[in-house]
Amino acid sequence: MTQQLTAVAIALFIFSGLKTPAICQDAADKPVNATSVQHRHENALARETSPYLLMHAHNPVNWYGWGEEALNLAKENDKPIFLSIGYSSCHWCHVMERESFLDEEIAKFLNEHFVCIKVDREERPDVDEIYMEALRVVNRGTGGGWPLSMFLTPDAKPFFGGTYFPARDGDRGAKLGFLSIVKRVHEAWKEKKEKINEDANFVTEQVRKSLAGEAVPENATLDAAWIDDCLAGLIKSFDSEFGGFSYAPHDPSIPKFPEPSNLLFLADCARQENQANSKARNMYISTCERMAMGGILDHLGGGFHRYSVDRFWRIPHFEKMLYDNGQLASVYSEAYELSGRQDFRLAVEELLEFVLLELRDEEGAFFASLDAESEGVEGKFNRWTQAEIESELSEEEFTLFAKIYGIDKAANFERQFYVPQLSRTLSENAKSLGLDEAELIDMLTPIRQKLFEARAKRIRPLTDAKILTSWNGMMIRGFADSGRILKNDRYIEAAAAAADFMLEKMVDPNGRLVRTYTSGQAKLNAYLTDYACFIDGLLALHRATNEQKWLDAAVKLQATQDKLFWDESQGGYFDTSHDHESLLARAKQVNDGAIPAGNSVAAGNLVYLANELKLAPYWEKARRTALAASPLLKQYPIAAPRLLIAIRKILEHAAR
Q: What is the pLDDT of residue 141?
C-alpha cells in the first residue's frame, strides 16, 4: 500500500492546494494579438507536417516533436520532460496555447528547466494512449482529456500530469496556475529526484500492466451470453427519454456522446429473430431520432459535431471529426434501411454532402476535422442571434424557420444565442402544419440554404488537412454503406475515389500502410486501426459493388496486417507493429471507444473474408481474435459491442 501511494505523495508535494479550474466560455478565451511573437520565434516543430504541430512552430516555447532528438536531449542534460498532447480541433488546446505557450515568462522557464515535447494525438495515438493511461494511474482511475499535460523523467517515464491548466494563480478559479506548477515541478526534481524516479517507475509498471491486458485462459471459449449481457447493460444505461447512454438524471450537464459502436451493435441485434430485437430497435431508432433533432447535428451545413455538453443533445462541442461522421453515416443509413424514416435519410445525405464540400481533398481522400472555434471563441461560427436570422429571411420564412428550429423560444446557448434544433421530429412538425414530411422538407430547404450561405461568409473554423488512414477507412465505409442502402452511385464513387487514393499514396513500396499524409508527404508507421479500418472500408466497397479489385486489395492488406501485428501466443493483434519504435508499453486495445478497437474491426473483417472466400483459416483467426478479448468480455461485455457483432457470426458459423 505504501508503494501504491507513492504517486499521490509526490503529487501532493508538488500540487498541494490545486483547485480544478472551472471550464467556461468567457472573455479570457478571446485571442491575444500573437502577431508580435509569431515570427520572432521558431522551434523544431517547423519541420513537421501536422497542422496542429505547425500551429506551435512559432511559440516562444522551444518545442520538439516526439523522437530521438528530444528524448536524447533530456537524458544528456538530465532535464525532466514537459509533454503536451493535443489536436487541431481541440478548443482547450488552443486556449492553453494562447494563455501559456505564447507567454514569454512561462516559455523562458520551460525552456531553461525542461525539454518540451508537443505531440499531435491523431498522428501518434500510441504515445497518447500510454500517457493518458499514466494520468489515470496517477489520478487513481479518474481524469483524462486534452490538452494532456504530463511531466516525465528524462527517460520518458511519467510521474505527474493533468489536462488544461490556467496560466497563473487565480485564473479561472485555480489556486495554482501553470507557471506555479512548473516551478514546483522543477523544485521537486532538484530536491526529490530519487523519490520522483521511484514514483515514475511505479506508474510506468502500472501502465504496462494495464495496456497489456489479462492473459487468455487456456480453456477460454466464446460465450453467446456476452451478447445478451451487453444488450442488458445498454438497456440499463439507456436514456429512455432523450436517447443515448450513460447519463445522470440529477446532472443534465454530463456530456453525452454518439457512441457509434453501441448503435451498430443495436442495429445488429435489431435484425435478429428474437424477443430482444424490439428493445434493441427501440434504443437504436430513438437515439438516432434524438441526435438528429438536437444541436449536435448541424441543421444548416450537415454533419455531426463531436458530442453534446448536455443530456438533451442540445449544445454540442463544436468540432466536427471525420471518424464520427464516417461511422454515423453507416449508423444512419442502417437506421433508414430498418425504419424507412425520411429524416434519417436526410441526415445521411446532408452529412455526406458536408464531407464532400468541406472535408474532401482534391484527390479524393478526406481531411481529419473542422475546428471547434473561430476567432478564438468556441462555437462562434455556428451560433446565431434571433436578429441575425431574421435579417436573412423574409417574414414568412423566418416565422416557419423559427417555429421549426426553436428560434421563437428563449435562447438556448449562453442565454443570448441560438443553435438551431428541433423540439419535435420533422414528421411531427409537418403533421401539426397539415403537411406531409416531404412537403415540409421542401419548404425548409431554401430557407436553410439562405442561412447556410450567410454563415459561409463568416470567419471559418480551421480545417485540419491531415489525411489519416484509419479515419479515411471509416469514411469510405460510410460512403459505401450509404450508397448501397440509399441506392446512390455518387456516394459509392466517392468511396472508390478515396480508396484509390489510399492504395496509391498511403501504401509504401513494401506494401505497408502509412499513418498520415499531409501536403504531399506520407509518413509514420500505420497502426492496427489503420489496417483494420481501411480493410473494413474496402470490404464495404466490395459489398456495395461486388467488384473483385476491392476484395483483392483487402486480402493483400489483411496478410500484411497478420504478419506485422498478430500475437501468436495470445491471439489477437497488437496496436503497433512488431518493428515499431520501442515505447514504455505495447498495447493491445480491445475496448471500443469513440474509435472502435482495431481488434474489434479486424474480427469483423476476418468474418467477412471467411464468408466470401470460404477459407477456414480466416474463421480460426477471427475466433482467436475474439478470444483474446475474453477476459474483458467476461467481466464487462458492454466494453466491446463492435466485437460482439463478429462473435455472433463466429458462433453461428461454429453451430452449423
A: 75
